Amino acid sequence: MIRKITLKKFFRGIPVRAQQNAKSYVSKPNKNEFQINISDLIGLLRENIRPIALICAVVMIITAMILMFLPDRYTSTASILPAGGTDRLSTLRELTGLAGYDNSPEANSSRLFPDILYSNVIRDAVLGKEYTFHDGSKDKTMTLNEFFGSNNPDILRIRLSGLTDITTDKKSGIIKLKVETEYPELSQSIASNYLAELDRFNRFQRRSTAGQNVRYLEHEIDTRRTELNIVEDSLETFQLTNRNWDMTSNPVILKTIGRLKRDIEIKSRTYALLQEQYELAKLEAQKDIPIVQILDSPNLPATKSGPFRLRLILISGLTAIFITALIIILTDIYYSSRPRKQINLTAPFRDRRTSLLIEDIDR
């Protein structure tokens, strides 16, 4: 016989058996074995359907009231194509389960894009922009400092990162950028500024091997040009000083002119070679810059991305049913397994306390 649990007794935690010899749905044939009687288990839950339903209804109502005050969220999504050389060992890493353990990305690879997007340089640039969006029937223009209501750089970066989600597909290498806010236009504007700042960083701040070669060759060309000009000026000055140098037979003059001409020829060849290498390095540097190739531009979301109120309410109700039923079962097992004291009903005397205890057990 299974005793029905009222809500008052449920919260007191006193689901007990009505009789001392009541049969429990959990039996223990051996010391380390348990057997569950499904029919008695269902009967226990059926007898306590009211407290389960009441608690479920209360939880669902509270969840609905909380969700009423949560604003709708809108997500703008953009996709970036991979750039840089292909990794010939990527397939082998996927087969061996080491796809995420490649710690040597190329200088012109797009695998650095997620880290660049999460950097303080990009986030501070995005935070410094002004944004215009619709708030109902009004148009608002504000910075993210005003939107978040803070001027602390660390707090602003954390909140902006909380709105941003960046993922990379391991097979295709496509990078997904998602920004979620309360306003569709604001989500799209933030995502667009992310991409614009990433492209600007790659073009003007990111350093590569070819770019370093260009800067080195520029310095060398300036140095060689200066040396060549000095030698040419020296030859010109010497020829002006010795106007008949082409008709003279003075060995000192001829030797000096020959040496100056030889220096000019050597420095001219060096300068021409460096100039040629410089032009090639500039072309290589243009190819070496990781271009941000946009596959999908940030969209203007028309439907909300959350919260899904009905789904959350149903999940909260099912969770409340499961937890409540589990508490009832565990409480019933606990009280059913407690040792019961034998009461001698044939005793010659019983005081009032013993009589009340027997009446409570009989009930």
Could you describe the 3D structure shown?
Helices cover 56% and strands 10% of the residues. The longest helix has 38 residues, at 251-288. The protein is elongated and about 130 Å long. The strands form three sheets. It has a four-stranded antiparallel β-sheet with strand order 6-7-3-8. It has a two-stranded antiparallel sheet with strand order 1-2. Strand 1 (26-27) and strand 2 (35-36) form a beta hairpin. Helix 3 packs antiparallel against helix 12, helix 6 (120-127) crosses helix 8 (153-163) and helix 6 (120-127) packs across helix 9 (184-204). The protein is an alpha+beta fold and 363 residues long. The chain has helices spanning 7-12, 38-47, 49-68, 90-96, 113-117, 120-127, 144-148, 153-163, 184-204, 209-241, 251-288, 309-337, 352-362; strands at 26-27, 35-36, 74-80, 130-135, 138-143, 164-168, 175-181, 294-296. It contains 13 helices and eight strands. The relative contact order is 0.14.
Task: Give a brief description.
56% of the residues lie in helices and 10% in strands. It has helices at 7-12, 38-47, 49-68, 90-96, 113-117, 120-127, 144-148, 153-163, 184-204, 209-241, 251-288, 309-337, 352-362; strands spanning 26-27, 35-36, 74-80, 130-135, 138-143, 164-168, 175-181, 294-296.
